[in-house]
Design a protein that fits this description.
With 280 residues, the chain is of the alpha/beta class. It has two domains: 4-133, HUPs (Rossmann fold), CATH 3.40.50.620; 160-279, Beta Barrel (Elongation Factor Tu (Ef-tu), domain 3). It contains nine helices and 15 strands. The protein has helices at residues 25-32, 54-61, 70-73, 78-88, 111-117, 137-146, 150-157, 173-177, 258-279; strands at residues 14-18, 38-44, 64-69, 94-98, 102-103, 109-110, 121-125, 129-130, 133-134, 162-168, 182-185, 195-201, 206-214, 221-227, 240-250. It has a six-stranded antiparallel barrel. The longest helix is centred in the C-terminal third of the chain and has 22 residues, at 258-279.
């Protein structure tokens, strides 16, 4: 992924422009419009949370990616921005953007102004709707945080939502008195609403039950993963794992004792098994 100062390509003839912050159905539709000798210009924002990691974005886009921080071009007029594109991509003939693409200082210009300023062709991808719901990254984030409806989120994304987490040391209570878990440090991602989820780990689809929320044992926020079946040593080693969210099982509950908690976790594990076996 090339940054502002290093952008220069003599071969790019087609360019998709956008934030591509969720890599959802609308972003995928834009990429489908690209042909040969194409690239993607990502307008990046300084956000603390994201729906798609930079590494995953590279895998999903599959075109050469050029990145611009919004702050680097915030003062450009509409004409300045188009001149910048022509300078950086001398052979540029075609642009592809979404219907809600804005550019120029104070977002003064829209996709139709782009057609006026740019001498080549501009394809505008119309609004993408799913059952009347407009597909936008911000709305997907709101669903994740407010309802945890991961099935709907996955439909809007056109992929299974995934985060990368670093395995960290936990309290040890699960292994001794409940069920063994992997404790994850998940930073930078939008996490679903607190609750229990049916998930899997990695490309091998290792089934697991995931708890997100504040632990009753120490009042600390945690992401805890119980691997179904044999608790393999490879998941006990400190490292990073990819966690995929498939479905929401339940909301957070509070328990008077560990016996009641373990009883509920046992039920959760069975629910997760039933959900995942019905899908995969």
């Amino acid at each position: 992924m090339k940054n502002f100062s290093s952008i220069l390509s003599e071969k790019i003839e087609e360019l998709a422009i956008g934030k591509f912050d969720g890599m959802h159905l609308a972003h995928q539709r834009i990429l489908e419009k690209l042909g040969k000798n194409a690239g993607v210009l990502v307008i990046a924002h300084n956000k603390n949370e994201y729906l798609c990691s930079p590494d995953l974005k590279k895998k999903l886009i599959r075109y050469e990616i050029f990145e611009l921080l919004l702050d680097e071009i915030r003062g450009f007029s509409g004409e300045d921005f188009v001149r910048f594109l022509k300078k950086k991509f001398p052979k540029l003939k075609r642009l592809v953007v979404g219907y809600d693409f804005y550019f120029g200082k104070n977002r003064a210009c829209d996709c139709y102004d782009l057609q006026s300023f740019f001498e080549g062709s501009v394809e505008i991808v119309p609004e993408i709707l799913y059952n009347g719901f407009s597909v936008h990254a911000q709305k997907i984030q709101e669903i994740l945080k407010e309802t945890g409806d991961i099935r709907f989120v996955n439909t809007l994304l056109g992929r299974i939502y995934q985060v990368e987490g670093k395995i960290i040391k936990g309290q040890g209570i699960g292994k001794k008195m409940l069920y063994p878990t992997l404790n994850l440090d998940v930073q930078g991602y939008v996490l679903p609403k607190s609750g229990v989820y049916a998930c899997f780990l990695g490309e091998k689809k290792v089934f697991c039950a995931t708890f997100i929320g504040t632990r009753s044992t120490d009042s600390c926020f945690s992401v805890e993963v119980h691997v179904l079946g044999e608790f393999k040593k490879e998941y006990q080693e400190t490292g990073y794992i990819d966690l995929y969210f498939v479905d929401r099982v339940r909301d957070i509950k509070h328990f008077a004792n560990l016996y009641d908690l373990k009883k509920q976790i046992t039920q959760d594990i069975q629910s997760v098994k039933n959900i995942l076996k019905s899908i995969f």
